[in-house]
Amino acid sequence: MLRALLLENVHPVATEILRHAGFEVETRSGALDEAELIEALDGVHVLGIRSKTTVTRKVLESSPGLVAVGTFSIGTNQIDLAAATSHGVAVFNAPYSNTRSVVELALAEIISLTRRLSVRDKALHDGVWDKTADGAHEVRGRTLGIIGYGNIGSQLSVLAENLGMRVVFYDVQEKLSLGNARRVRSIEELLEVADAVTIHVDGRPGNAGFFGSDLFERMRPGAIFLNLSRGFVVDVEALRAAIESGHLAGAAVDVFPTEPKKRGDEFDSPLRGLPNVILTPHVGGSTEEAQEAIGEFVAGKLRDYLATGSTMLSVNLPNLQLAPTGVGRIMVLHRNVPGVLAAVNQVFAEHGANIEGQVLATRGDVGYVVTDISDVAQRGASAKLQEMATTVRLRIRDAFDRPEFPPGPAAGA
């Protein structure tokens, strides 16, 4: 039986989908460290995680039965993607399912910081009636600067304009401006005009620590700052200094360089206790609606990959959209070198196999050839394909929809 391990309180809908597809599913509430994860993955074909569990090269090397990993989140920086690819492990994420939740939180925080609501709230909780308009502004007519104009940044752009804000954005890639948003040529240009700056970048290593004291100094006096992307992209000590000096009027931070592993753990940060600073525990995408949508989306991708070999929207393998055909299917993930397809078909020809359908896609160093063929396992062709030096991973579905997972060759073969 196919086995799945789901960690970190993945939404129950994921368990339901996988069990309905024939998986034996084990769920655990917290994250696991490297040694714990290696032990837990014994006999497991599919792993589901969120943001706290790290899937290292050692984990992948120690888990030969692992076929796919689903990150029930947007980010995949907690997985060694190069190692996953070299071991033939497909990785899926949820690039769209929680974008609305993040955008709504960003908008709420922009309004709250601009009106200094956290300061007014604290005063009343302390028993002080501090009714004043000092430092409070409307967001209408103010300029929002968005660093990173992807799925979240572009959606935020549209909704901010509907509130009457002007929008400028910076992205390292060419992006189509939505509405009246204006692209700027540099972060420095954005910082010169923005009353509110919000970061929505991915977790690539090059983004680590890029927003530090030099960029905070370039921000307009009295501006506000938001980070709902990755904790390691911002120098939090520099942000604290900018708040304490009065250069910035406020900040909202949802992600941190170091975060507790589970709910209820102690949290510490240089940003605690600062005025007009909103701290949230990495909940940008944590709404009930988003978590259910993520659970449904990622679990569906994992189910489809195991059932049909479909890799559509995989973050590390060539993308193929595949449907069941009612005949046997052999799936070869291979090194992307010349002559592989010809060699695969030569094996089929030598065994008198009749190919009923075949597709191939490549991505970087790997290729993926999927062949529909009757009785492929019984004809002996699969053993020959497994022995090929270019084969990274071989998977088979027979005509009765039963999976087989022949052991793959050594990494780097």
TrEMBL record:
The keyword Amino-acid biosynthesis applies. It catalyses: (R)-2-hydroxyglutarate + NAD(+) = 2-oxoglutarate + NADH + H(+); (2R)-3-phosphoglycerate + NAD(+) = 3-phosphooxypyruvate + NADH + H(+). It is an enzyme of class 1 (oxidoreductase). Keywords: Amino-acid biosynthesis, NAD, Oxidoreductase, Serine biosynthesis. GO terms for molecular function: (S)-2-hydroxyglutarate dehydrogenase activity; NAD binding; phosphoglycerate dehydrogenase activity. InterPro entries: ACT-like_dom_sf (IPR045865), ACT_dom (IPR002912), AHAS_small-like_ACT (IPR054480), D-2-hydroxyacid_DH (IPR050857), D-isomer_2_OHA_DH_cat_dom (IPR006139), D-isomer_DH_CS (IPR029753), D-isomer_DH_CS1 (IPR029752), D-isomer_DH_NAD-bd (IPR006140). Pathway: Amino-acid biosynthesis; L-serine biosynthesis; L-serine from 3-phospho-D-glycerate: step 1/3. Its EC number is 1.1.1.399, 1.1.1.95. One of its GO terms (biological process) is L-serine biosynthetic process. It comes from the Bacteria. Pfam families: 2-Hacid_dh, 2-Hacid_dh_C, ACT_AHAS_ss. Residues 329-399 form the ACT domain. Catalyzes the reversible oxidation of 3-phospho-D-glycerate to 3-phosphonooxypyruvate, the first step of the phosphorylated L-serine biosynthesis pathway. Also catalyzes the reversible oxidation of 2-hydroxyglutarate to 2-oxoglutarate. NCBIfam families: PRK11790.1. PANTHER family: D-ISOMER SPECIFIC 2-HYDROXYACID DEHYDROGENASE FAMILY PROTEIN (AFU_ORTHOLOGUE AFUA_6G10090). Belongs to the D-isomer specific 2-hydroxyacid dehydrogenase family. This is D-3-phosphoglycerate dehydrogenase. The lineage of its organism: Bacteria, Bacillati, Actinomycetota, Actinomycetes, Micrococcales.
